[in-house]
Design brief:
The complex is a heterodimer of chains A (about 100) and B (about 160). Chain A has about 100 residues and is mainly α. Chain A is about 35% helix and about 0% strand. Chain B contains 5 helices and 5 strands; from the N terminus they run ββαβββαααα. Chain B has a 5-stranded mixed beta sheet with strand order 2-1-5-3-4, with helices on both faces. The termini of chain B are far apart. Classes of the chains: A mainly alpha (about 100), B alpha+beta (about 160).
Chain lengths: ~100, ~160
Amino acid sequence: MSETIEKPAANARRRRHPPDPPDGADKVTGRAAYGADFDMPGQLVGKILRSPHAHARIVSIDTSKAKALPGVKAVVTGADFPDLGRRADRGGEAASHMRDLA
Amino acid sequence: LSKTHVTATVNGDPVEFLVSPRMTLLDALRDELGLTGAKEGCGSGDCGACSVMVDGRLVCSCLMLAAEAEGRRVETIEGMAQGGHLHPLQQKFLEHAALQCGFCTPGLLVASKALLDAHPDPTETEIRYWLAGNLCRCTGYDKIIRAVMDAAAELRQERVA
């Protein structure tokens, strides 16, 4: 009946150390690939211009100089997205500011 | 812009690459050498996700110019596991569940190894102060501290043995 003795010991060890996550070894060795780690042929790179002012109203954005730069494929602002309104039905701050996040 | 030719040692291997004057060591490692283990979390030296060793000194690779690596010895997370075996720190991070998303993990491991290489028997307070420059949004730090203490104990055992 050695089996009945070994089983609780194995379970006890499992409780102390949960099984390693399947991607654990990749993450501790730096192999795990995150969004910024991918490099595809012809990949475009995006840059975000943020407002220097918190909670400020965007009056206008002049994209002409950015569009004129060599190699620029697109310049996207909130004006390129449909107006979803200032909905608060989902609750929280983000929902009421969807337009500004776009 | 003219590029600078840089010769350095990365994880024991001689490497050469061309860099623009403004390129950071982090970008050179990631984009020129394909070593994407070091991460850009903030780009301003606050988060420690880009930590690497340069000539035995812990640095934020986002704050160092790639051209400054000329003739230097760089060590990254990719060099920590030796011969297919995880370093005790890597093993203990897994055992103690000291990571979740894993984005801060390479930087924390490099920083922890720098500490243990110089101070094999740090107190918990010393570990917390040493790792204060490495931010983690997942774990709450306690598991990381326990993993480093456990790894330090194992490494001390290995030295005695």
